[in-house]
Amino acid sequence: MTNFIECIAPSNIALVKYWGKKDIQIPQNPSLSFTLSESVTRTKVLFEKGKGNTEFLFEGKHAPNFETKISTFRTLWENKYPSLKNYDLKIESQNSFPHSAGIASSASSMASLSLCFSELLKNEGILDLDKNSFLENASSFARLGSGSACRSLYGGVVTWGQWREGTSDEYATEIPELSKKWSSWGDAILLVSSKEKPVSSRQGHALMMDHPYAESRFSNARNRLTELYKVMLEEDLLKFCEIVETEALELHGLMMNSNPSFILMKPESLAIIEKVRAFRIETKIPACFTLDAGPNIHLLYPLEKKAEIKDFVNNELSPLLEEGKWIDDKVGMGPEVFGAK
Ligand code: DP6
């Protein structure tokens, strides 16, 4: 095969979390995230006219678990664009971060795959949309692969879920007025554990169905999003830190209150949380933590304070990290397409 499309899509970190869904991957509440820059998936799709075969290589090797997911994803596209059935595809994917780092890769991988499929269909004259609709369509397909992936189609500050004009439950949109103000933020991803999680995000979402706090959670998240938006617009950094931390702890509180209950934080996660709060009080640097559905901590901070944060991580947090590892990430510009041929 000589024709190919290659793209990279970044991971993202939610500040207001998507936790609970209905219908076909429709979020119970709107979410808001920073798109990252260094934690990315690079996907290359080689294609030629053929019988509709799919071959998938993850980091150079066949990965049967992923293959099923990719085939299901391909079928979704074929349902809307039947001509895709006339192509053989060889898909090669790799992450910039170690597979075992315990970093969620579904967002970056489904986003990069969705973008590659969109570009392929555009190149072959099957898809003809203006730039905005093209991205909305790609974001909407990424959502079907993994909810949070739909936010990775855009750079900066991104929202998914209906709350203000131009937002949608089906795809994400950038919030340009916030991207402008928040593009210089760092995310030190502190790796606490790379072990497989006892409960997947998918299972966690399902447990929100008859969660005792479901209704109050969904309305809290909605209100928190409006509050966070305002605080981010005003650049009230300390209030920003408070809201982001409350939201992360609420997510983990919901897990503890689920039936069955589960805990994804580790003792080290909690120790880091306490140290981050003490650091903020002591130094007055507006750095705060958030967590995804896992034990790792994302330490968010203004990049101008990078030297202080590096010292803090290396001197105080490093012993709490798995092999002292952390990823030096920051807010990024969104996905890139290159090497289309
Ligand atoms: C806690 O997007 O991984 O990271 O749609 O089932 O694939 P699926 O779930 P996923 O859930 C992400 C949950 C979260 C919050 C967030 O990113 O908004």
Helix count equals 9
Q: Runs with pLDDT <50, length 5+?
A: none
Q: Give the fraction of residues assigned to helices.
A: 25-40%
The distinct ligands, each listed once, are: ligand DP6
One letter per element, helices H and strands E, the order comes to: EEEEEEHEHHEEHEHHHHEEHEE
The CATH top-level class label of the largest domain: Alpha Beta
Structural class: alpha+beta
CATH-level-2 architecture of the largest domain: 2-Layer Sandwich
Mean pLDDT: 95
Query: Into which percentage range does the β-strand content fall?
Result: 15-25%
Molecular shape = globular
Mind explaining what this structure looks like?
By secondary structure, this protein is of the alpha+beta class. The chain has 2 domains: 3-179 and 333-340, Ribosomal Protein S5, domain 2; 183-330, GHMP kinase, C-terminal domain (Alpha-Beta Plaits). It has helices at 64-80, 106-123, 131-145, 176-182, 201-206, 214-234, 237-256, 267-283, 306-317, and strands spanning 3-16, 21-22, 26-27, 31-49, 54-58, 61-62, 87-95, 157-160, 172-174, 185-190, 288-290, 297-302, 326-330, 336-338. Strands 1, 4, 5, 6, 7, 8, 9 and 14 form an 8-stranded mixed beta sheet that branches. Strands 11-12-10-13 form a 4-stranded antiparallel beta sheet. Strand 2 (21-22) and strand 3 (26-27) form a beta hairpin. Helix 2 crosses helix 3 and helix 6 (214-234) packs antiparallel against helix 7. It is globular. Ligand DP6 binds next to helix 5.
